[in-house]
Amino acid sequence: MRTVFVSAVLLAVAACAAAQTVGPAGKFYPTVTAAAEDNNLVAFAAALKDNDLSALVNNKNLSATIFAPSDEAFKALADSDDKAVQALLADADKMAEVLKYHVVPGATLTGARLVKLIEENKGKFSFKTSQGEKINATLVDGSVNINGVPVKAVDVQGGKVMIHTIADVLVPPSLVPKAKKADAKEGEAKAEKKSESGAAGVAASLLLALPVAVAALF
Ligand SMILES: *[C@@H]1O[C@H](CO)[C@@H](O)[C@H](O)[C@H]1NC(C)=O
Ligand SMILES: *[C@@H]1O[C@H](CO)[C@@H](O)[C@H](O)[C@H]1NC(C)=O
């Protein structure tokens, strides 16, 4: 009897979970962390946690749109032998700024709505981020780019926050090392063509690499 009862409860729980998955537009989760961890944004979720930003993004009152770098993007960052990148990763204050630069507070925007906003504003829409500086959304061959970085997947929702996956980590202009600024324009042009260095097993090694890089100072 007990077994039957437990199974019934599990079925009910499973049914509830299924009911939360909204239709073809995307997936729904109760929190940003849950959404990120279930959608190959494990490193982003870990970085938020390491930088004490989980509470900020998981606040159920927060309406926002987040452009979350893929696990491959964080892996590339952690693997970079660029000293400026490593210095950034090792600086907790700056990393918190970098992460907040991916959060646009105020509206829960679907991918389709983003496209409309850009189209209605002559091909470019600027959003103010939680970090304070702006990001630019544009259309490249019909796909949304953020500061020249392609959006790879859209419409995963955690609470009132809409999450879109981007192919690279965004750095606020004020934190871009001076020597790098000259390359930025060229980088934007290339970003479109750049393919993600996706490989199986990347996420697992990243889990080791990123927290080590980020936690190095604590
Ligand atoms: C959400 O908003 C309500 C109403 O303003 C407030 O009472 C509550 O404390 C807020 N919750 C969080 C987690 O900030
Ligand atoms: C966004 O666009 C504005 C206006 O063209 C430009 O001044 C600014 O540098 C751009 N920001 C980024 C992060 O590319």
CATH level-two architecture: Roll
**Beta-strand residue fraction:** 15-25%
What is the CATH level 1 assignment? Mainly Beta
CATH superfamily: FAS1 domain
Arithmetic mean pLDDT: 78
Helix content: 40-55%
The outline comes out as globular
- Structural class based on helices, strands and sheet pairing: alpha+beta
Main β-sheet, in a few words? 8 strands, mixed
- How large is the count of helical segments? 10
Distance between the termini: 52 Å
User: Are any ligands bound, and if so which?
Assistant: 2-acetamido-2-deoxy-beta-D-glucopyranose
CATH topology: FAS1 domain
Write down the domain tally.
1
Rg computed from alpha carbons, rounded to a whole number of angstroms: 18 Å
Q: In terms of topology, how is this protein built?
A:
Elements: H1 2-20, E1 27-29, H2 32-37, H3 42-50, H4 54-58, E2 64-69, H5 71-79, H6 83-89, H7 92-100, E3 103-105, H8 111-120, E4 124-128, E5 134-140, E6 143-146, E7 149-158, E8 161-166, H9 178-191, H10 202-215
Parallel strand pairs: 1-7, 2-8
Antiparallel strand pairs: 2-3, 4-5, 5-6, 6-7, 7-8
The structure holds 2-acetamido-2-deoxy-beta-D-glucopyranose (2 copies).
Signal peptide: 1-19
GO cellular component, one term: extracellular space
Pfam families: Fasciclin
